[in-house]
Design goal:
It contains four helices and five strands; from the N terminus they run E-H-E-E-H-E-H-E-H. By secondary structure, it is of the alpha/beta class. Helix 1 runs parallel beside helix 4 and helix 2 crosses helix 4.
Length: 140
């Protein structure tokens, strides 16, 4: 299953960009990173069937194991692409939230956009490591 991270804004050279690149290299699942301008731009058409996850302050705060379980179930159900969408500074429109398969939050704190992108990449790596039985994730 393709993991497709879609983010508003350019990450440029930064410590966060280094983290994104680190986890991009470590991921063994197919991965695509798409950067869009702050406004406008077109999200590429997905591979069907697909799922959409919006990173959203109103979303669920999932444990890493639960995220892994969700991704594993979607993969096993034949989903070809899961899109993880990080919105612009003002977040997502209500219509986008309504259409999403999952709203995901990294706790109740507000995170800078670039940090959220790096955290998402780490969580995707962690989830795939959990599914592969890799010792990276050390629970409880």
């Amino acid at each position: 299953m393709l993991l497709h991270v879609i983010a508003r804004g350019k990450i440029a050279r930064s410590p966060e960009a280094d983290l994104v690149a680190r986890y991009e290299k470590r991921l063994t699942w197919p991965l695509k990173l798409t950067e869009l301008p702050e406004t406008g731009g077109r999200i590429p058409d997905p591979q069907s069937p697909f799922r959409t996850v919006l990173l959203d302050e109103r979303g669920k705060d999932l444990a890493s194991e639960k995220l892994a379980e969700t991704l594993g179930r979607w993969r096993d159900d034949g989903i070809r692409e899961t899109r993880f969408v990080l919105g612009a500074a003002d977040g997502h429109a209500d219509a986008e939230r309504d259409e999403a398969d999952l709203l995901l939050a990294f706790g109740s704190a507000t995170w800078p956009h670039l940090m959220a992108r790096a955290m998402l990449m780490e969580q995707l790596y962690r989830a795939t490591a959990i599914l592969a039985g890799h010792p990276y994730h050390r629970a409880g």
